[in-house]
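In the laboratory, one determines a bound structure by crystallizing the protein with its ligand and collecting diffraction data. In a computational setting the workflow is compressed into a single prediction: the sequence and the ligand go in, and a structural description comes out. We illustrate the idea with 1,6-di-O-phosphono-beta-D-glucopyranose.
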Amino acid sequence: MKKRGYIFDLDGVIVDTAKYHFLAWKKLANSIGIDFSQEQNEQLKGVSRVQSLEKILAWGNKTISAAHFTRLMTSKNDDYLLHVHEMSESEILPDVIKILNFLGDESQPVALGSASKNARLILNKVNLIDKFEAIVDGTNVSKAKPDPEVFLIAAKQLGMPPEDCIVFEDSVAGVQAANSAYMISVGIGDAKILHEADYIFRDFTEISTDFLKEIKKK
Ligand code: B16
Ligand code: MG
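The predicted complex, in structure-token form:
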């Protein structure tokens, strides 16, 4: 099998933490008199913590001081972490381990490319940290997806040229980031939402090892 770099997003690809982000953002939004729906939560997928709060405040037509903004960010993350601390291997999405084991058996370089500042903690909670040769997360980047920075750093750390990298992403911004890095983008989720991806699958149960061996840029 040709050597390539495999870069996985975290939230929505390896684990479904969107449900915990939803609970924490909803509690925060409601506490300052702003409604928050599942549809709005969808729009925060792949979006950084700062930008998520900016969007929520804009939806609620609310302006707050910088100090209040910082307090809200901290309290949202504290709430979110209460859920994260309860996580275990049982929350790994279907066939993710199968694919990671296959890539490991084939000695393929594997990286994480996530916007989350909690990525290492989550990977430890679900016992997957050892599967990744490189971990690039929200603590390593200055530009959020759709900027390709996170994936370009991951490719560099794997020692692979971007065009030989394959990105698995559940967010539109992440697919766009992979495309602008000239990587092969594999959307995980709804084909209507992720139509800019080179390939789209509902989840990893639909991805065969033969597909991984033969995949090419479209
Ligand atoms: P945190 P990903 C993203 O992770 C999430 O999709 C997004 O909803 C979240 O706001 C962002 O991480 C930041 O997360 O608050 O933990 O730093 O999908 O890029 O793995
Ligand atoms: Mg994601």
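Residues 9-12, 21, 44-49, 52, 77, 114-118, 138, 171 surround 1,6-di-O-phosphono-beta-D-glucopyranose (ligand 1) (CB under 6 Å). Keep in mind that any predicted model is a hypothesis to be tested, not a measurement.
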